Structure formats: C-alpha cells, structure tokens
C-alpha cells in the first residue's frame, strides 16, 4: 500500500450480498489496522456507487486522519486503502451490469527465480530479446576487450541491443546503459581506465556531448563513434534550433535578469548559440526542478526560461503551482531555501517554450489515464517528466500517497529497485505492480535490475515475490504544432485555441505509439550490426570510419567564439551544480552582469 506497513484487503459484492460491498481488512501494523477498521466500519454494506463517491481529500475526514491536513503517512494509509476499496467497487459495478471490467494493459512479470512471462502480444515483443544469443555476447565482449572499446548507450535502445549489452557488461565493465546525464561522465571514466575508443548508441546530441566532455577532460585522443554515417536526429533537438525558439530566446534576452535552462536533449551548436543570447545552463529530467529552484533562490528577481520540451515545461509549472499550496515544512524538504511565499512569487517569472517541431505521441493521453484510474489505481505509478499533463497529474497524486514517482528514467529505475528491496527485506509473499509511464525501451534495464536483486537475496528463505511491469500502451497518437511561449499566469484557454491537432504520428519521424523513443526511427539506427561493424574495423588506419566520428565543432559562433567551448559551458555549469548544489559564480555573474553583446 505504499508504506512500510502491509495491508490486506478483501471485498465481496454479488447477488448474495444484495450488491452491497462487504469488506474485510487487516495489517501487520497496529496503527494501520485501526485505520482499516475505521474504513471498513464506514463502508462495509455500502452500495458500490457510495464507495466511489468518497473523496479522500474531504476535510471532514481529517479528524480520522484521512484528510489533506493529516500527517502524510497517515493520509497515505487511508488514501491507499480507500483507493483499493474503490477499485473493487468499480469491478462490482461491472459485474452487476454484466460487463467485463476491461482488458488489461500488456505486461511483463518477473518471478522470484528470474523467469519472465509476457502477458499480451506487445509484452511478448518486448521480451523476445531478454535472453540474448550467447555467441553474440562473447563475440562482442572479445572485440571490446581486444581493442579497448567503451560503450555508452541510452536506456531507449532497441530491446535486442539492450539485451546484448546488458549481458556483455557482466564480462566487460566498460559498458554503460543510462540516461543522458550519465553517458558523458561514464565515457570519461572509461577513458581514464584506458579505453582508446568510445562508441555512443543514441542520437547525435548525445555523441556530441560525449565528445565535448572528453575534450574538456583532456582526452582529445580518445575517438568517439556514432552508429550511422547519416545524421541521427531528434525532433525535440530540432525544435530548439528553430526560428521560433530563437525568438523565444530573444524575448528572454530583453527581460533582465534572465537564465535559460535548456534540456540536455539538444545539440551542442544550439547550446552555444543560446548561451550567447541568454546565460544558459543545461538540465536533465532528474535535475531540472532543483536547478530551477536553486536559480530562483540564488538570484533575486530572476526570470527563468525553460525549453524546448513543452510538456516538461508545463509539468514543471504544474509542480510549482502544487508546491504553492503546500506547508512550508513540505516545501523545505524539496528545497531548503523556499517556502510558500517564495514559490508563489516565482510563478509569474517562470516561462517555458510552448511549441516547435516536437512530434509527441499521445502514449499517456486521456484514454490511457482513464484506464489507469479504473484498473491500476492501487498499483505503483511511474512517470517521466516529459509525459502529457494528465498523466503527470495522476503520477503526482500517486507520489503524494507514496505510490508513485515522477522524474527521469534513472529515478524510475531506482524507485522500482527501492520498493523491491523493501519487499525482499520483509520476505513475505507479494506482487509488486508498476505502471511504466515512460518509453518501453528501458524495460531491459528494469528486468536486469530486478533479476540482480533477486539473485542478491537468493540465500534467504524465499517468499513468493513477483514484479509486474505494465505497459500503458495507447491505441492512437497525436502530433502537435504551435509556436510561442507560455508563462504560468496566462490563460490556458487562449493557448489551447491556437493548437493544431493532427491525428496519428507524422510519417518518417518523431515518436511512435508502439513504445516512444524505443521505436523511434532515429533510435533504431543504433543497431547491433552497426556497433559490430565499427568495432571490427578499429583501429581505423584507412580512415574509412571518419563519417561515423562524433562531431568536433571547429567553427565559430555569431560572436566569433568556438562553438565547442561555448556549447560545452552550459553542460559544465550543470556538472558544477550536480557537485555543489549551487549555480557556479561564473554563471551567476553572466546572469547579473550580462554574458556579452548580442550579435547584430
């Protein structure tokens, strides 16, 4: 139920009960058992519709510990038990009306012995490469060892590639599958360990970042390779290089003082040009919130301009609006230098980019959210910061009652591992169900992490513990195009009137309803065949692989500076923040005193 205490809930509702809900509940915690007894006393014998009508945020429930003013742990217990009761009430209504409660989403179930079973054709497709060919693994490992090649890959790789790399990592430590934040730092560690080559499986901005950080750390001779001779694009990165985004930045440059917070999923050239217009720091989905909060705390009267991901921008704004209603003590846990007054005051000064060329799949739209509410309301809910607002709000509500996480792919993986470790420490039969609110490409890493934890606890007397990963796959998608910016205080209706909604995914680019980035044609360019081709031809004595090398920018910005140096600076600012939790003095000086004249 989301907390350390375990709760067991049983419900009956049929013709024999007069279609009234009959509940029984128990817990291994005396306090939780008392809460359960109160809820059972209140709702046992009620009509299913009456159970559904109970609002867990009702202030009248506060004296019993269930309302919004109650302590977080008590409110979570009440809320989670009530959610379980309401789920069973929906099932009862469907049974009474002769309806099927609904077809479940596809899922993968990892058993205690490490075995994986797929439920649904979509899950079967994901599971195909979880047990890769041993000959392919050994062949790759031997080549990597012989030629001292490191591999950094994004979580959203093709399942076959991820399966091979995950298995190969057990024999060759210089393989890292991670989110964007860790890829470049991992490459530096590989270079320090003696790797002569780094292969990058991802889109071009990832290989550019790896190349620039290696150069900054003095590893100029370590060669970085992409997986295709053709550009490996990203529609989100393209959005940040558009004329509309430049207009957004020019608007920011006229508003003093301003800081541009740019998502790492952008090219080095884009970062360089942006930094010359407005002082810029890079962020990822895992550090964007602390970065922005620290900036507001560190620089008085600051304006923050976030881009280019409009969904993430809207979700950040939504999060801060929620924080403005929290108690000061809760806000301080998120950032010690903020309270309700400071959060409320920053809202009008938070701006985010509202459009561009990003092709957004509606993987987590209204249809999916409705199904999650009805069938998976008592499951753990995970959501990436990039998901549409309705899914984000649902995940935030789950997080509030300790049943969810909102953040990066790494945050999601850590959340799953943490709850599995708690279950393993309890060592009683359990079925942990997680709704995967991000691209399905990271399922390989999740399965590997779960199996590793099961192995770690293999010496104890084994309870029957299972982990189920649910894929909330939508049946349709949208493409959205709009221009301009939006800040928190303006009317949403006006902006919605200006949106262009196009049914389906634009052909040939962007995201897919069949798994987001994991099925993106750009990510699909990172094949196992490409990796092996490059590795086998190293060292490249005849310069046949030059078109595969990551860009090293030797040209200049509009102000005549090196693109590589200027574009790398926002990344270095982010790395400084990661280490110290404060913006670097150089960046603060640029914000307060200006970063240079704007090019004519």
TrEMBL record:
UniProt entry tagged with the keyword Transcription regulation: no
Single GO term (MF): metal ion binding
Cofactor list: [4Fe-4S] cluster
Main location: plastid
InterPro entries for this protein: Fe-S_metab-assoc_dom (IPR003808), NadA (IPR003473), NadA_sf (IPR036094)
Single GO BP term: NAD+ biosynthetic process
Pathway linked to the protein: Cofactor biosynthesis; NAD(+) biosynthesis; quinolinate from iminoaspartate: step 1/1
Reactions catalysed: iminosuccinate + dihydroxyacetone phosphate = quinolinate + phosphate + 2 H2O + H(+)
Compartments reported by the entry: Plastid, Chloroplast
Lineage top rank: taxon: Eukaryota
Keywords, sorted A to Z: 4Fe-4S, Chloroplast, Iron, Iron-sulfur, Metal-binding, Plastid, Pyridine nucleotide biosynthesis, Transferase, Transit peptide
GO-annotated cellular components: chloroplast
Pfam family, one: NadA
EC number: 2.5.1.72
Record-annotated Fe-S metabolism associated domain positions: 2-87
PANTHER family for the chain: QUINOLINATE SYNTHASE, CHLOROPLASTIC, QUINOLINATE SYNTHETASE A
Family statement drawn from the similarity comment of this UniProt entry: Belongs to the quinolinate synthase family. Type 1 subfamily.
Name the UniProt record assigns to this protein: Quinolinate synthase, chloroplastic
